[in-house]
Design a protein that fits this description.
The chain is an alpha/beta fold and about 425 residues long. The protein has three domains: about 130 residues, Resolvase, N-terminal catalytic domain (Rossmann fold); about 140 residues, Hect, E3 ligase catalytic domain fold (Alpha-Beta Complex), CATH 3.90.1750.20; about 100 residues, no CATH class. Helices cover about 40% and strands about 20% of the residues. It contains 14 helices and 18 strands. Helix 4 packs antiparallel against helix 5 and helix 7 packs across helix 8. The longest helix is centred in the middle third of the chain and has 32 residues.
Length: about 425
């Protein structure tokens, strides 16, 4: 039988549009930079829409955020879009715009390559998905990171040189404003609040009571936040209110993470006396410091005031009281002091926060591999509980971050052994 061979013509594929988005970033929130950001967004939108075969899927932009940080909000949204298989390509201006951290860049590019998402770097004319793309990006990212380090070190040198010369820099202080010459001047309304805080403390009021009073009077902080126990203490111990300026109280751990860390002697500090007009006289200030020391010693000797890593840091926004730690069979948990002592009637919105969940959230907020009390206290001023399953982290630098958390029901979290023990305790109570 003769074989018959027929040629089957290949069917032409329907052209597939590439789903393309762009990423833009400026490293300063100044007006000129924000204008640059708007220009970038407009440029990429027109570029993608006018390119045949490309489908415009948005421009993701971050402003006033350093390229060394992994926590850029819109950058993370862009990655999530890729993980949902909604993009085929990302366009960005350069390696340094995408990330100055070599590790972050390579990890991101590799993940996107696994997702079959190409990253095109305009300035370097590199496609990450190409054969030699990763090699070129490694070299260029290393250079960008080195450049970032150089810029950071130069900035540190200028700041520390300024400290040595007694220059106060861009410090902002409640109770003061800067004049046209950059000098601190008293802000009358805020200054009166400062004086009231000192007077109330000397009269016998505690820090929590003062914070609660200010909140009830409708006198928020400059950022519009509630007053807290640590915020009051920070104000009461601030030497700036007597006209002095202690420079370099804090420093950044490195140019990549840039975590604000309290200076415990790692770097020199500089005291500038009579740098500006005082709000509080020296006698009042010293009297307050003595009272703070006495109360601290008093409480440290009371057994009921046993200290835990988060003691005095978690505050109920409903009643103003701090959260206290309790230990149950299922583990440690934190509860509002009013709820513990007086019941749900007096603080109906209070919910217990399991310690393990609390630690996980804190590690996520500070980008820590594990819980570290020193780092937590150096960066976080207060943790507010405004409502059930909500936490607001108040940082020493004034910014806040909010987190929502989920909690399994007690019935789900209890083991059979725990249920049996609870049943036996209940029977004994009924006898």
């Amino acid at each position: 039988m003769e074989r018959i061979i027929r040629k089957i013509e290949r069917k032409s594929k329907v052209p597939k549009f590439q789903r393309v988005a762009a990423y833009a970033r400026v490293s300063s929130g100044k007006e000129a930079m924000l204008h640059s950001l708007a220009t970038q967004i407009n440029y990429y939108q027109q570029m993608i829409e006018n390119h045949p075969g490309w489908m415009f899927c948005g421009v993701f932009a971050d402003e006033a955020v350093t390229g060394t940080k992994d926590s850029r909000e819109n950058f993370q949204k862009l990655l999530e879009k890729c993980r949902r298989k909604e993009l085929d390509m990302i366009i960005t201006k350069s390696v340094s715009r995408f990330a100055r951290n070599t590790v972050t860049l390579l990890e991101t590019v590799r993940e996107l390559k696994m997702l079959e998402v190409d990253v095109y770097f305009e300035e370097q004319n590199i496609h990450s998905i190409s054969n030699d793309g990763e090699l070129m990006l490694t070299i260029l990212a290393s250079y960008a990171q080195a450049e970032s380090l150089s810029v950071s070190e130069n900035m540190k040198w200028r700041i520390r040189k300024g400290f040595q010369e007694g220059k106060i820099g861009s410090i902002t202080i409640f109770g003061y404003r800067r004049n046209t010459d950059g000098q601190l001047e008293i802000e009358p309304q805020e200054a009166e609040i400062v004086r009231m805080i000192f007077r109330n403390y000397l009269s016998g009021m505690g820090q929590t009571a003062i914070a609660h009073k200010l909140n009830e009077m409708g006198m928020p902080t400059r950022q519009g936040n509630l007053w807290t126990n640590p915020r009051i203490k920070e104000l009461l111990t601030n030497e700036k209110y007597i006209g002095n300026m202690l420079l370099q109280k804090y420093y950044r751990n490195n140019h990549i993470e840039k975590i604000k860390t309290k200076n415990h002697g790692e770097l020199p500090q500089y005291l500038v006396e009579d740098s500006h007009e005082a709000i509080i006289d020296i006698d009042t200030f010293q009297s307050v410091q003595e009272m703070l020391k006495q109360r601290e010693q008093q409480y440290s000797h009371e057994g009921s005031m046993k200290r835990y890593p988060l003691s005095g840091m978690i505050q109920c926004s409903y009643c103003g009281k701090n959260y206290q730690r309790k230990v149950y069979p299922q583990g440690g948990t934190w509860l509002c002091a009013t709820f513990l002592r007086r019941g749900k009637k007096y603080c109906p919105k209070a919910k217990q926060i399991p310690e393990n969940i609390l630690y996980e959230i804190i590690c996520d907020v500070l980008h820590l591999p594990e819980f570290d009390e020193r780092i937590v206290r150096d960066n976080i001023q207060m943790i507010l509980v405004p409502k059930s399953y909500e936490l607001v982290f108040v940082f020493h630098d004034g910014h806040t971050e909010q987190r929502h958390w989920e909690h399994r029901s007690r019935s789900e979290s209890w083991t059979d052994k725990m249920k049996k023990q609870a049943s036996e305790r209940s029977k004994k109570c009924q006898e």
